[in-house]
Amino acid sequence: MKIRIVDAFTDRPFAGNPAGVLLLDSGPFPAPDRLQRLAAELNLSETAFAHPLPPGGEADWALRWFTPTTEVDLCGHATLATAHVLRTTGTADGTVRFASRSGVLRTTAQPDGTLTLDFPTAPLTPVAVPPGLVEALGASPLSVHDTGENVGDLLVELADEAAVRALRPDFPALASCSRRGVIATAVAADPAAGYDFVSRGFFPRVGIDEDPVTGSAHTALAPFWSARLGRADLTGLQASARSGLVRTSLRGERTWLTGNAVTVVEGDLLTAL
Description:
Pfam families: PhzC-PhzF. Keywords: Isomerase. Belongs to the PhzF family. By secondary structure, the protein is an alpha+beta fold. 20% of the residues lie in helices and 38% in strands. The protein has seven helices and 18 strands. The chain has an 18-stranded mixed sheet that branches. A hairpin with a 2-residue loop joins β6 and β7. The longest helix is centred in the N-terminal third of the chain and has 13 residues.
């Protein structure tokens, strides 16, 4: 069985967010503990497992995502990586429908080589600053929003891009502040630089101190910044050490996320799942 590592939301190797991708045979998924052990072995932000579904249904492939410590409900970069593998191996092209824990997700290959994810828009609810958040994050928010069940993060608006880039969180303390993680964001200091807003994502509660590029977080960042900037189509920069760009397009209850992907490792899994 082939196993691949794909850098997502980037057009060059060793940037963006690396995801493991395994395309399985048809039939049910292996036992969850087996999938979890392999995800822990790879030790990437997420590893995606997909298998084909019978024709004629509402989806073409079943898809699950695991961090090194747990299964998650929604993952953008590993979905992008899976669609990239399907396309580059000639397994599927055009629009692919994935059955997931967050419903049916669609990916579409674009003529320019990018891939677009069609994800549910995260509902945003203003909330009070949780106890301990300021100390754990090391910054005082301008606003805090809950992003709903599917995403499960706190969206934290900071004063400016410099404040986002300067964050050095206390990760053990931050793990108690949200259901999944904390997304820190601010408007771009210079929109001429090629992006409209900046973010960083911290997820110590699911085994990821800082995620390089978080696709699912942009289903919350898109409506947040579209409302403030007055445009449906924006570009976000996730300013991790690896960095990556996510083009967002707000379409009501759906958000389109567009980016590139690059396969950097391909090998054989030598043990059965």
